[in-house]
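User: Hi! Is it possible to get a structure for several chains at once, not just one? Here's what I have:
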Amino acid sequence: MAIVEQEPLALPAGEPSRSARPLGVFSRPRNTTGLKNWLTSVDHKKIGIMYGVASLFFLLWGGVPALLIRLQLARPNQGLLSGDAYNQIFTMHGTVMVFLVVMPMGAAFANYLLPLQIGARDVAFPRINAFSFWVFLAGGIMLNTSWFLGGGPDGGWFNYAPNNGIAYSPGIGIDFWNVALMIAGFGSLTGAVNLITTVLNMRAPGMTWMRLPVFTWMTLVTQFLLLFAIPVLTVAQLLLLFDRRFDGNFFNVAQGADPLLWQHLFWIFGHPEVYLMILPAFGIVSEVIPAFARKPIFGYPFMVFSGIAIGFMGWGVWAHHMFVSGIGPLSVTAFAVATMFIAVPTGVKVLNWMATLWGGKLILNTAMLFSIGLVTQFTLGGLSGVSHAIAPADTQQTDTYYIVAHFHYVLFGGALFGFYSGLYFWWPKAFGYKLNEKIGKWNFWTMVLGFNLTFGPMHILGLQGMPRRMQTYDTSQGFNTWNMWATIGSFILAFATLSILYNALVSYLGWRRAGRPNPGPDPWDARSLEWSIQSPTPEHNFDVTPTVTSLDDWWYHKYQEDENGVLRRVASSKELAQPGNGEGVHLPAPSYWPIIVAFSLPIIGYGLIFSLWLCIPGVFLLLAAMYGWSLEPADDLDQDHHSEPEPELAQTHG
Amino acid sequence: MAEAIIDQAATPVADEHHEGHYTSLGLSNMKLAMWLFLGSEVLLFGALISTYLLSKTRFLTELVAGNPEVVAGISNDENAELVNEMITKGSVEPLFDIPFTSLSSFILLMSSLTMVLAHKSVTEGNYKNLRIWLSTTMLLGATFMAGQVYEFTTFYREGLTYDGSLLGTAFYTLTGFHGAHVTGGLIMLGSLIYLSFKGRMQKDRAETVELVGLYWHFVDIVWVLIFTIVYLIH
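Assistant: Yes, the chains can be modeled jointly so their relative placement is included. Here is the combined structure:
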């Protein structure tokens, strides 16, 4: 189950002979520390951490335009940003937050945890995993270079046609949006193929479907949504690319085209997209709440099947984004009903979390608080979401701040609170020290305050009729007070969001001063398999693949019923945990190729925007790197089976 | 079991499907991944075909209604007769040469047969036949591509330009995308032949041939859809 890429094509078929020269492959990177190791690593844990670091960076980067928006709207008739600058700012805020923050943050947790939770040594295709990360980063960097190369995209993150056409947006910002997101999309697609294969095929013995942790289940549903949603967005972007760069007519109304096609394609992608952004957070909360309520998750099969139901129904509600586009009463009715219906499985989840909390011995630490924060705030966002399903009301709400309030409640109050909960929860597993609880609680409560102060008033502003995406408003419109409160809230929120980095630093320094005490394999006395190995996770994950006999298998190793049917602890986590001895374990070798393939794509991308000649070296590099990749053995055959670096060594770069 | 997991590289390949490793579903990871990728491709072509159908209908409606810009977009100096026929029939059928495209479709479909024979040869260890059938597949695929180039040239001369009309944009994008997929398949086939000559594509790597075959059959099936939807139903 460890290294499951195919046998190397570069070597003669049959018994792998070490003396035979591989075709067209140069020597492999062997570094186990330092920059080169990070650039060439195929370790799912390192890739997960890199996803996390990149998405936290983009969170700050995408927060700057958000604060600019709030400054501009703090008072009526301000001229801080021109209309054009404002368009670019809100477009980039939305695009960065959706594609470069929430999606990769989900990927960070999925990468780090999925193999650990199913008892595997790595993902199915370690090099493709590295490629997924680097191509996401390449796309993200390319998108942001638009600021320096002619201005950002200005069509909104949804980028409606015909407004996205060359006639209405003659700059190159939208081309950057288009090409860079297409490149980042490759990363999501390959990541989805990889992670689905991992869950389907690499489960430890006994890890049957109904024993998978809920996080693994939700991530699996997420990856299926990505697998089928990303190609639809890619098609929409290709049509736009051909229209803008090669004079196509897909959205050219003069030639009889129907620009509504864009909205359909975009939201067929876009609505599964919103579920794939929230489902990983649902999974995290479903791990955290049982751990700190000291109870198994209530209604495990309902949690699983409601997640699957959300995954399926997410495909049938896209046109509720289009109620005012004239799609006709029949379509409006059908999509309105479907939208109300999809609230049901979501409601099942909320009730199950509450039932898990009910009667539990609650430990209200930071991770738990953030999870409860998700349940509360997501429910508020869900309720305003259901109100969009009432089509006549939606007609009034569309394009107002009411919508802005709704999706920030589900994506910030929901997804991001869930991710913060996950960071606090799994931090000791990844880095070997706990985050400071006191700062953590400040982090949580200031975030709750700032979040609700920023986005709560937007419900009222929206119902008063304040339109989205407008650069300013007049004092006669009566929007002044709540806008000022929202701006104040946004700065509180910014500091609260940043404080996790401050916490990481303070906690690290305190831990180092205290002589780097080990938090132990299972600092929270939790339930799933990742807690049965040492912290930080050894490079090889499991010394011996665990055999699973029940849901929450690890928990039932620690606790067993006594003669009165009461759960009693029978052994400590330290005694039960695997010691982290990786002797004889053979891991997939690092490789240069994933990052080379990934960064050949932006060269083609810049070529599509600036000069097609640039595409030629890009395509040659891409092809050469793909050949290098497919001829390179997944294992480093020249290297003998070596003993792994000690866990202490691994944590210095973990 | 535990040993097999601790050291995969030392585990002998004992499985008749040459999977090499234990997997939960008993299906090799590569094959599963290929199926997942093809599932994703279904949505790619689904969206492109839908776009074509919508664009063609909108184009014909405007053409029959006599929208001057749409008529001008499809007209050149010599094709007045063709445009008139399209308007009177309310169909894009006059543009197509169905017997010619039927022949090239037949050629592409036959390449699926030779691909199956190539896979059969490699499982039997008959590497000469493997190369013969792979080359035949490649030749048939290349013939199909030559037919598409010829067809595109003809249509272009008949007045169907890429940027002139909505129909042209949608038609060339859809069929061009399929052509790009065929070209990708040709590159893979060529690589297989090269590896086979180098002695690196033998019985225990039959799955690699099978994976290329899966992709190749998928591209053929997509063409069956495109041929039916674009050429036969107008």
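The CA atoms of residues 165 and 244 of chain A lie 6 Å apart. Strands of chain A lie at 559-561, 567-569.

User: Great, thank you!
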